[in-house]
Amino acid sequence: MDRTLETRLRQAGALASLPNVAMRVVALAHDPDVEAEPLLDEIQHDPPMTARVLRAANSVLYNHPRRITNLRQALVVMGTKGITHVALGFSLRGLMQPAGTSPDFWRRSVYAALVGRELAHRLAPLAVEDVFVAALLQDLGILALEQALPADYARIVAGCDGHAARAAAERAALGTDHAEVGAWLLGQWGLPELLIEAVARSHDPRGVAPARRTLVHCVATSGVIADLWLDADHEAATERAWLAGDVWLGLDTEVLSGVLETVDRRLPDMMALFDLEAVDPAQLDAVLAAARELLPHYAVSHGGR
After folding, report:
1. Which is nearest to 174 in space by CA: 199, 156, 158?
2. How far is C-alpha 227 from the chain's CA centre?
3. Within 13 Å of residue 97, how many CA atoms lie on the same side as its CB?
4. CA dist., res. 258 & res. 284, Å (int)
5. Is the dihedral of CA 222, 224, 225, 226 positive or negative?
6. Choosing a second label site near 139 at 20 to 30 A (CA), which of 29, 66, 157, 191?
7. Three-state SS letters, 68-105
């Protein structure tokens, strides 16, 4: 990445560092010798964070049959990674709303996080939490570029139609894209290398080491599938989603349809969890119905499953 751009990024206001409570929680949770008490103590000293963790523990993310009423119960249900990632995600929720950001930014982030989680449940169950947070953060570089280059960045991406076009315009103008910038930022925060690589490769997951391949491919595929709910050209978005699922994860149309059905069912609750404007259920159902109709056609036309 260009040094001038890196300097601008380092000076880019709120995103230059995480809130203190999030930094401490992340550091504790990634200490292999950490005990529960310091982690819970850190969270409970921040009442809004405590409320967020309990809200997440009782959400569709975990589907626990009984009501979670305290942090110790939440730790049992969510694990240290789950609590860490909720603390990180909700801390960023307050940062990731600069005035120039498109309202679709957070919608895509949340859609992708839920899609990634559902993919991981089926393909990498031990990596569900990592996939969720990496998918949530994969477009963080957009915000960093907006803050570092407010006027220039708006000009660079003006008229871009879709996510791939945005990334291509970034590379043409800056020699890098928001995936690389986001990965750099996560490195500055001291997040695990696994998350950094997943974000860095979210546009092109080729060549990943076998041990990380499924996780990284789930993250890369999550964003493409999320665009089903956001792109105006629904047919093209469905074809891209099918291709990504087939090429990167070997998904057949039945599995992909199952992922879409689960996301369709859980999205309203996820939007509420992240304090986002409610999605019209009829619109969600229309996207799902169209995808169900189109997916078999793409599978046949591309010689897939």
Report:
1. 156
2. 12
3. 10
4. 14
5. positive
6. 29
7. CCCHHHHHHHHHHHHHHHHHHHHHHHHHCCCCCCCCHH
Q: Quote the pLDDT of residue 16.
A: 62
What is the Cα–Cα distance from 39 to 24, expressed in whole angstroms?
9
CA separation, residue 245 to residues 159, 254, 304 (Å): 28, 11, 11
Torsion, Cα 234 239 244 247, to 10 degrees, reads: 170
Structure tokens at 165: 């076009």
State pLDDT tens for residues 5-50.
888 888 876 566 666 777 777 777 667 777 778 888 888 888 888 8
Q: State the DSSP code for 50.
A: H
Is the model more confident about 27 or about 52? Answer: 52
Contact 223, 229 (CB under 8 A): no
pLDDT tens readout for residues 235-281: 889 999 999 999 999 998 889 999 999 999 998 888 888 878 888 88
Q: What is the pLDDT of residues 265-276, one digit of tens each?
A: 998 888 888 878
Residue of 116, 104, 90, 122 lying closest to 273 (CA atoms): 90
End-to-end Cα, the chain, rounded Å: 40
Burial zone of 28 (CB within 10 Å; 0-12 exposed, 13-18 middle, 19+ buried): buried
Residues with Cβ within 8 Å of residue 209, at least 6 apart in sequence = none
What amino acid occupies position 192? P
DSSP strands (E only) in 14-153? none
Give whole-number Cα distances, 178 to 5, 11, 183, 232, in Å: 12, 17, 8, 22
3-class SS letters over 174-241 = HCCCHHHHHHHHHHHHCCCHHHHHHHHCCCCCCCCCHHHHHHHHHHHHHHHHHHHHCCCCHHHHHHHH
* Measured distance CA(178)–CA(197) in Å, rounded: 13
- What angle do the packed helices 234-249 and 210-226 form, to 10 degrees? 170
